[in-house]
Automatic annotation (TrEMBL):
<dbReference type="InterPro" id="IPR018053">
    <property type="entry name" value="Glyco_hydro_32_AS"/>
</dbReference>
<dbReference type="GO" id="GO:0016787">
    <property type="term" value="F:hydrolase activity"/>
</dbReference>
<feature type="domain" description="Glycosyl hydrolase family 32 N-terminal">
    <location>
        <begin position="12"/>
        <end position="334"/>
    </location>
</feature>
<keyword id="KW-0732">Signal</keyword>
<comment type="similarity">
    <text>Belongs to the glycosyl hydrolase 32 family.</text>
</comment>
<dbReference type="InterPro" id="IPR013189">
    <property type="entry name" value="Glyco_hydro_32_C"/>
</dbReference>
<keyword id="KW-0378">Hydrolase</keyword>
<protein>
    <submittedName>
        <fullName>Glycoside hydrolase family 32 protein</fullName>
    </submittedName>
</protein>
<dbReference type="InterPro" id="IPR023296">
    <property type="entry name" value="Glyco_hydro_beta-prop_sf"/>
</dbReference>
<dbReference type="Pfam" id="PF08244">
    <property type="entry name" value="Glyco_hydro_32C"/>
</dbReference>
<dbReference type="InterPro" id="IPR013320">
    <property type="entry name" value="ConA-like_dom_sf"/>
</dbReference>
<dbReference type="InterPro" id="IPR001362">
    <property type="entry name" value="Glyco_hydro_32"/>
</dbReference>
<dbReference type="Pfam" id="PF00251">
    <property type="entry name" value="Glyco_hydro_32N"/>
</dbReference>
<dbReference type="InterPro" id="IPR013148">
    <property type="entry name" value="Glyco_hydro_32_N"/>
</dbReference>
<feature type="domain" description="Glycosyl hydrolase family 32 C-terminal">
    <location>
        <begin position="337"/>
        <end position="479"/>
    </location>
</feature>
<keyword id="KW-0326">Glycosidase</keyword>
Length: 496
């Protein structure tokens, strides 16, 4: 492996070259999932933003296409969204029967001689299914001279009210707008001052409705990314559950009480999932939503040890809502499409873990491209540690501490870490919310990332790492007492 290839993921999306951050403008149309992204084609650090573009038929393997939106006199192209304007409500559809794709993004322009930006909201539309875009002649659609941080419009179709609704981040709150034609926007309300996490600026919101599993009820979900102020430092995405009446978002009362007691409503507790939002026009038949996030963290994203390209996206995920004794909680899991890539399988049941137990030795199954399902029945008061390692002594530790009731990822000795003192300064943890006496989980492994989905997606942790050679061994370690690993199933994922 050259250093570059050692670190380029096997199956998570990365741009061929240069800097990438947030996913943008995701929509599904005519067989393709589109993914645009914050892109600085000239360098491997953040700079004047464009919208890069990639497409996929299954959200797993991606084809990168030419840059879709370039900076203009209103500024560079910050994050935003895109919708499929099926009824041509915007009038942007040029050809008869053509369905325009309408993108809304933040134009961000640095004010001369200052560190401040003028951030306004602009529109661009496409009549070729998202390949190329034309800027709307009356941009900016929403002007702004007062608010410093005013960005990341996410547009959604409100079926009940038959109108477009847009959420926008404004520093310490989310502003709600509506529109009939995607061009003229009315401010409705705002939400968030003093509510939830405020350790940093609010960014990249999303608003959508989800059915509550097993009921006739639906609730509205509001995503709010925040940087810094994440549960384990730096950037992360929190969520709120409530109702939206067409004007105002109101948190569910019980959710509010629970949130005020302990804020553990984050779509991911790992350090590397940021700015994630849902795909437009891609609601699954069961009402679930699809999303992915940027698999990095502003704390160190610009200095990770890759040169020609920087940053990957997380695996695409399905978002559902459950309600149990603990109230509402999102369930987030990898999309089922990933299972189409399963090849060689290793499966074992009822393994007694008395001492450090090797599950996969180097070479047996490629752990740089794998999906693992496991189950531990009858949890004891002990610590369950999984260890990924290589012959150079790099190791990534993760698992569940049932004394503290916390999941953890420890990347302190996972390889290269010194590029940023914030990268491996502490062990990331997440409180377990489930009270199930059995623990089950899904683990997605790529060369430089781990994604953990515990308790059917109640708690998710995503982190990146940079080992000096691939982590090719997996072992499980007990602490003080033996336990039984009920099941472990490792599927090699094959993308050729
Ligand atoms: C989030 C963010 C957005 C902004 C974009 C700029 O990571 O800061 O708020 O639109 O990145 O690249």
């Amino acid at each position: 492996y050259s250093e570059e290839e050692l670190y380029r993921p096997n199956f998570h999306f990365t741009p061929k070259k240069a800097w990438m951050n947030d996913p943008n403008g995701m929509f599904f149309y005519n067989g393709y999932y589109h993914l645009y992204f914050q892109y600085h084609p000239e360098s491997n650090v953040w700079g004047p933003m464009h919208w890069g573009h990639a497409i996929s038929t299954d959200m797993i393997t991606w084809t990168e296409l030419p840059i879709a939106i370039y900076p203009d006199e209103l500024g560079t192209i910050f994050s935003g969204s895109a919708v499929v304007d099926i009824s041509n409500s915007s009038g942007f559809g040029e050809v008869s029967n053509a369905i325009p794709i309408v993108a809304m993004y933040t134009s961000s322009k640095q004010l001369e001689g200052t560190d401040n930006w003028k951030q306004t909201q602009s529109i661009a539309y496409s009549n070729d299914e998202g390949r190329t875009f034309t800027k709307y002649e009356n941009n900016p659609a929403i002007d702004n001279n007062e608010i410093k941080d005013f960005r990341d419009p996410k547009v959604t179709w409100d079926e009940e009210r038959e109108k477009w609704v847009m959420v926008l981040a404004a520093g310490d709150r989310i502003m709600f707008y509506d529109s009939k034609d995607l061009k003229k926007w009315n401010l409705l309300s705002d939400f968030g001052q003093g509510i939830g996490g405020h350790g940093g600026v609010w960014e990249c919101p999303d608003l959508f409705k989800l059915p509550v599993l097993g009921t006739e009820e639906s609730k509205w979900v509001l995503f709010v990314s925040i940087n810094p102020g994440g549960p384990n430092g730096g950037s992360a995405t929190q969520y709120f559950i409530g109702d939206f009446d067409g004007t105002t978002f109101t948190m569910d009362k019980d959710f509010e009480t629970a949130l005020n007691k302990e804020h553990n409503y984050w779509i991911d507790f790992g350090r590397d999932n940021y700015a994630g939002v849902s795909w437009s026009n891609a609601t699954r038949r069961d009402g679930s939503k699809l999303m992915l996030g940027w698999m990095s963290n502003w704390d160190y994203a610009q200095v990770v040890p890759t040169e020609t390209w920087r940053s990957a996206m997380t695996i695409a995920r399905k978002v559902q809502l459950q309600k149990n004794n603990n109230g509402y909680r999102l369930l987030i899991n990898p999309v089922e499409e990933l299972t189409n890539y399963r090849s060689t399988k290793y499966k074992k049941e009822n393994i007694v873990i008395k001492e450090d137990t090797k599950i996969i030795d180097s070479g047996a199954i490629d752990l740089a491209s794998a999906e693992i399902q496991f189950n531990i029945p009858n949890l004891k008061e002990t610590i369950y540690t999984f260890k990924l390692s290589n012959k150079l002594g790099d190791e990534l530790l993760f698992g569940y501490d049932n004394i503290k009731k916390k999941f953890f990822i420890n990347r302190k000795n996972s390889g290269k870490t010194s590029f940023s003192e914030k990268f491996a300064n502490k062990i990331s943890t997440a409180s377990r919310t489930s009270t199930n006496k059995n623990l089950s989980g899904t683990i997605i492994l790529d060369k430089t990332s781990i994604e953990l989905f515990f308790d059917n997606g109640e708690t998710v942790m995503t982190e990146i790492f940079f080992p000096n050679s691939p982590l090719d061994k997996l072992s499980i370690e007990p602490k003080d007492q033996e336990f039984i690993l009920g099941k472990i199933e490792i599927n090699k994922l094959n993308f050729n």
